Target: CHRD domain-containing protein
Amino acid sequence: MKNVSFAVALLAGGLLLQSCDNTAIAPDSAEQTTTTASARLGGGSYNAHLTGDQEVPSNPLAPPVVTNATGQVNLKLSADGTELYYKLIVANIETVRFAHLHLAPAGTNGPVVVDLFMPMPLVPVISPQGVLAEGVITAASLKNSLAGKTVADLVAAIEAGDVYANVHSVKYPGGELRGQLD
Model:
């Protein structure tokens, strides 16, 4: 009986191997094109570590931001390049009012181009920890100097070092956490 079981298993394995061929499976052209586009756009992932010491006060006489709060923004470009999926994570922060992406290089302030977190009604969120916001950025999400533009335009600005994330709080209305996306 042992020999019969072994013979059946051997025969089944041989049939399985015989049914497989060495034909390579190529990705369809759309998949190949989007993969190439994502690679051309810097791999399609962008991140920023947010700290208070990266804040640039709008008033030069304002004291520097002193905070134990930290944060992280992660962006992932969709395969077709028309959407950016985002996640905003914060820790040790109190009374968050808003969070945005701004258009400006490190060390300077710039206009809001994407809202990441806008509580409705406009009431601060007290002591959020972990994921504060997540969602999808599309061309319709873009505002001010990027209004009417595409996600590719936002990605180009990110890759040029000209986009930063900013988390505004009650204590620091101009921003408590900031980080340049790269």
Observations:
- The longest helix spans residues 2-19.
- The chain is about 20% helix and 30% strand.
